[in-house]
Amino acid sequence: MLIRQYQASDEKGWVYTKALSYLFSPFFDDRETEKPALDTDIYDHRIELVAEMDGQIVGLLDMDIYNQEYSQSYLYAPADKVAYFTNLAVHPDYQGKSIAQALYAKALSELQEHQVEKLAIFTRAGDVANHLYQKWGGKLVCSDYLVIGQPKDTPAFRFGVDLDKGQLALKDMDNQRLPYYLREGIYIVTDQTDLDLFDIEECYQELTYVVDIPQA
């Protein structure tokens, strides 16, 4: 197995690997037909790695490093340099072969080279991924719920994070607590008890981890 830097010619294999991997995961609804470009308004750099076996892309990892201004105001883990775990996927036929671990080990050395202090990871409930992130030192700092259903009301909101409680903190324009908000057709619910406000078709728990990156 070869762990190397992503190249533009890898895009087709990158898309296929991510699509197949996510199809059998809690992120089945994350569909991309091309590799997104780096948002240079908030990010300074992207770590882009692929795992290759017999000329085939079988794994991928992307981490985007925020610029200093965004890092210092980052809600989940403010620091001088924060990175966001954008993508991690392993082809279903090659899972269980420590490919994700190899990708992360290479990425960790690059995070250290860039003096990144915090790595934020957004995921959903699922034993395999969460076990990996915890193994890598991820500390759970926030949890919420993704609900497909119909609420009684959809108020305007302000977005925040209550790190003491480990959950999102939503407020209306009068600074009063809100139990949920709408994002891309899915309702984000802050507290498990507020799930009673919905006639739920499907529900997924969303988890946020933060990894403290040891400095070389």
UniProtKB/TrEMBL annotation:
GO terms of molecular function: acyltransferase activity, transferring groups other than amino-acyl groups
Pfam families: Acetyltransf_1 (PF00583)
Entries under InterPro entries matching the protein: Acyl_CoA_acyltransferase, GNAT_dom
Domain N-acetyltransferase: 1-164
Highest rank taxon of the organism: Bacteria
Keywords: Transferase
Organism phylogeny: Bacteria, Bacillati, Bacillota, Bacilli, Lactobacillales
CDD domains assigned: NAT_SF (cd04301)
KW Transit peptide (keyword) present: no
Source organism: Streptococcus cuniculi
The protein's name in its UniProt record: GNAT family N-acetyltransferase
